[in-house]
Amino acid sequence: MTDTPRTAGSRRRDRALAVAGAVAAAVVVWAVGDPLLGNDLIVEQPDREPMDLGFAAFAIFSLVSSLLGWALLAVLEKTTSRAALIWTVVALIVLVLSFLPLTGVEATGGSKAVLAVAHLAVGGVLIPAFWRTRKENR
């Protein structure tokens, strides 16, 4: 089965849906982890006040991260013929690095698990969706 070429408009629409899906995935993880399972998503860092990560934090972080990923992909598509490959490698590296802050904060094991799953959920939506919407260079 061959894919039909995507137009710029259909790529934008599909990427916008991917961003919405990534935000929805993060919020679902929060909803299951915090109110449903009762993990108080409070993280403490040295010399800082404890932060309670609620709905807004999950929604905003996933939205901003997704939009930055989209922006990087768009720039790469304008500057290199290997945009999808470069973007995917960068996205996977960023996903792996996103777990590092979890090692430097004080939080319950359940809270850290919810945060880790949220990172995986956002990456699990965006990476394949943005790969699927890559600009074909012929």
UniProtKB/TrEMBL annotation:
Pfam families: DUF6069. InterPro entries: DUF6069 (IPR045713). The keyword Secreted does not apply. It comes from the Bacteria. The chain crosses the membrane at residues 16-33, 53-76, 83-101, 113-131. The keyword rRNA-binding does not apply. This is SPW repeat-containing protein. It comes from Actinocorallia aurantiaca.
